[in-house]
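Weekly puzzle thread! Below is a chain. First person to post its structure in token form gets bragging rights.
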Amino acid sequence: MRTSEKPATNSAGPSGALSAERKLPVPPRERKPALAALAVLLILGGALATTLLVMRSGDRISAVRVIEQVGAGQQFTEQALEEVQIADTGIAYVPWSQRGEVIKSFASVTILPGTLLTNDMGINASKELGPGKAKVGLALKPGQMPEGLAKGDRVQVVHVPSRSGTERSRVLAASALVHGVGEKGLVTVIVDTAVSAEVVGYASSGEIAVAELPGAR
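Winning reply:
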């Protein structure tokens, strides 16, 4: 009688195979409640800041805006100011309620149209209109003044002798403040009293011209 051999079996059995494939135990992940709480606080803080900005952007204040150029040392006028409503950004703009005080003061620097006025832009006294200064009126012809000359500009006042003479042109006032500009070439400038008489004398004979100094504002 023929007998068949049984295949050899693993002595370890099924339990041995499972033990070989068994992985090392993995420790549970450590939870960090402090970091989670911090993340929540950051999210809430950002949302609160955004809400405050949106709410504050709706706050409006009444401020003073300059609508006409005011030169350094010139006094503010009512015509040069207007009321404007702006968002309250925390900047100390001069409130419209103080416009009465503004027109009693002088510009500390040249202020261009569209500027919102702050306290440091005004001073109580002007060196340009104080002792040692004189206002001089000029009647200038085309070619004796630049186009677009405006109140508050700085100019050189130049003596331009007639062609019949041999005298050369020379500067009488190196940086005169334009106090006003009228029609038909009428210009008022502020110069030192030391040269005011000379400027008036040459102006009466049409021998004065002015050159604008844009960089001297």
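Puzzle host: Confirmed. Bonus trivia for everyone else. The beta strands are 60-66, 81-87, 106-107, 122-123, 133-139, 154-159, 170-181, 186-192, 208-212.
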